[in-house]
Specification:
The chain is mostly beta strands. Helices cover 0% and strands 47% of the residues. It is built from no helices and 11 strands. Strands 2, 4, 5, 6, 9, 10 and 11 form a 7-stranded mixed beta sheet that branches. β5 (47-53) and β6 form a beta hairpin. The protein is globular and about 40 Å long.
Length: 128
């Protein structure tokens, strides 16, 4: 089965940038999947940030990160990226990537956490 490993988190000042990576390994159909980025802060529910379908154009970002975050992918490396610019303290969170079937990315299920069957362990982003 597919396993996901996030990396790239860290501590930056407000206005700084980070690029998160989500590398897939193991057996599984990575060439066609809905990949999502989520984030969570203590005491709050995990919230969706961005999605992309592997191997296809078209991405989705929530309004709070539009214009600042970009989601991209390298199919050959089986890696998805989240480029985060102009980071603000409210972006501080534990960031997770997750995988679901392609159709999840297409509508209201996009950020339904129970639709995602594979999750990474998370990478911490702290903005001060």
């Amino acid at each position: 089965h597919v396993q996901l490993v996030e990396s790239g988190g860290g501590s930056v000042p407000a206005g700084g940038s980070l690029r998160l990576s989500c590398a897939a390994s193991g057996e599984g159909v990575y060439s066609s999947a809905c990949m999502g980025w989520f984030r969570q802060t203590p005491g709050k529910e995990r919230e969706g940030v961005a999605t992309a379908v592997t191997g296809r154009n078209g991405t989705y970002l929530v309004d709070s990160v539009k214009g600042r975050f970009t989601i991209s992918q390298d199919i050959a490396k089986r890696t998805m990226y989240l480029q985060m610019n102009s980071l603000q303290p409210e972006d501080t969170a534990l960031y997770y990537c997750a995988a679901a079937t392609t159709g999840v990315c297409m509508g209201d299920l996009r950020f339904q956490r129970n639709q995602y069957g594979v999750w990474g362990q998370g990478t911490q982003v702290t903005v001060s």
